[in-house]
Amino acid sequence: MTPIISFEKVLKDINIRPSIEATRLASKFGYRPYMVERYIEILGLDEVKELLEAFEKPLTPSIRCNTLKLKDCDLLIKYLESKGYVLKRIEWHQYGYRVLKRGKPRLGATREYLLGYYYLYRGVASQLPPLVMNPKPHTYVLDMAAAPGGKLTHIAQLMNNTGLILGIDISRSKIRALRSHINRLGVLNTVLLRADSIKAINSLGLEDFFDYVLLDAPCTGEGIIQIDKSRKVKTTLEDLAKFVTKQIEMLVVALKVVKPGGIIIYSTCSIAPEENEYVVSKALEFFRGEAIVETPSNYRSLFSQGLIEFHKLKFREDLKNALRLYPHLHDCEGFFVCRIRRKS
Amino acid sequence: MQNKEKKLTFKRMSDDEVRSLLLVMTKLFEECVDKCFNHSFYIAYNEYCEIHYAINQDMEMLIKRITTRYKHPYSLGLFIGWKRNEKFIPTPWLFSYVYGCLGKIKAAIQINEKASYLYLYGRDIFASSIMKIYEPIKEGNYVAVLDYEGEIIGVGLLLKSPLKAEGNEVVVKNVFDMGWFLRRGG
Ligand SMILES: C[S@@+](CC[C@H](N)C(=O)[O-])C[C@H]1O[C@@H](n2cnc3c(N)ncnc32)[C@H](O)[C@@H]1O
């Protein structure tokens, strides 16, 4: 099969030359200069400093109360408060909480955790994509990069364990963790496959099958620098181009298997335009206008807009409907969420 | 629990196999549970183990496609139990599902707070730790273990009726407990 887009073309498109200012800031904060250059292009110099400072601070973890196991989330809060935890409801989420102060035992070892009363996240942003998807009960959902399963188990909760979720992940160790979470959280409507989702989906012949697809894509993880400082220098432009090529390929598969009228959520824990707006633009271009980027109206005013241009690149107008989450503005990991509807 | 997962083969249970599985469950709960299962049943097996799953109708078509066209799934639907030495061992998720369906707790014992925490560390249960019995319970059968708040924290094998045992006698052997998620899973 001919590739949708070549690695060389991607690399050429995303090439960026850092300015002196970017190089100076990069050396001060320990980043690759190209990363800082693009943050400056997106946010401007003053705001970039705020962003880089925010990446130095610890990330606030969060939990999601699992109503498949516990109907009364107040009870969970009471239990955890009695162990010394201080929790605050996330302003855009009915049953998600920021962990402001830790207690004992640690959150992955409480009785309530073992009983599946909650899922633990490193930040809050990961709780957003399933809410933006908002799947209806009794529908069919595909999660193309499912492990360890924070989003898949949240989707099952939103569907109240009805319908079907096909969860695919390539990693042996991570899918094991996913299965463990599924059992712990009482998720019953899931089929798991350990596979390369592109190959698996192509050979299963599932065109137009799913009402919803989540592609929480494998990415550079540039948004979680707070918890992994190595990400300041880990990714070369070549590495980035490899991720981008794969992401485009995966998103095109997602577009093929979602039903006409169905929804795809594309998300990454990265604020890099290359692996977000560029990916969505290219995949939709390949799909010849048969899909649009929708406004997730409940969340629009809470987060920043997607980009419609960056550096030398121009993206689709409707990409401004995408959601960008920044650590310095939204007290979370850097994140991107986009709701795409395939036309009927 | 599902550690020896290499080269698992999946197959749909035959009508006979389903009938005998439902009979085992009926014996366990001393009540017919057929009405709870509008499901198909699948077995995943290799030379070491046999794992049983129940799946809803929405999943059936997809699973057929996966098993015929591509490869074996990694897990499916409701994990109801596994077989060891020809004996069916129910999971906490089966107990929980059946309780939801019947609207009552059966074949279970409830234990006190201290014993609950110890059980989550893989320990067995002494007769003196038992707060409440939910019939039917039978020596040699599996029971759900409920903690001091009534939540299912595992599955045990009843060695001796608590009514006949001394306080310091082990009456329930730990077969599986939710502490597994801390020790092995997750
Ligand atoms: C960002 S993580 C997904 C996190 C997950 N959605 C969650 O909420 O817990 C990306 C995942 O993609 C998986 N992955 C990478 N390449 C893949 C491929 N070709 N097919 C399927 N999964 C893949 C990785 O193993 C990794 O678990």
Please write out the topology.
The complex is a heterodimer of chains A (344) and B (186).
Chain A: H1 7-14, H2 20-29, H3 33-43, H4 45-56, E1 62-65, H5 73-81, E2 86-89, E3 96-101, H6 111-114, E4 118-121, H7 128-133, E5 140-143, H8 150-158, E6 164-169, H9 172-185, E7 190-194, H10 197-204, E8 210-216, H11 237-257, E9 258-268, H12 277-286, E10 291-294, E11 304-305, E12 309-310, E13 313-314, E14 323-325, H13 327-330, E15 335-342
Parallel strand pairs in A: 5-6, 5-8, 6-7, 8-9
Antiparallel strand pairs in A: 1-3, 1-4, 2-3, 9-15, 10-15, 11-14, 12-13, 14-15
Chain B: E1 9-12, H1 15-29, E2 40-45, E3 50-55, H2 57-70, E4 75-76, E5 78-84, E6 87-90, H3 92-102, E7 108-111, H4 113-120, E8 125-126, E9 130-134, E10 142-146, E11 152-158, E12 170-177, H5 180-183
Parallel strand pairs in B: 7-10
Antiparallel strand pairs in B: 1-2, 2-3, 3-5, 5-6, 7-9, 8-12, 10-11, 11-12
The complex binds S-adenosylmethionine (SAM).
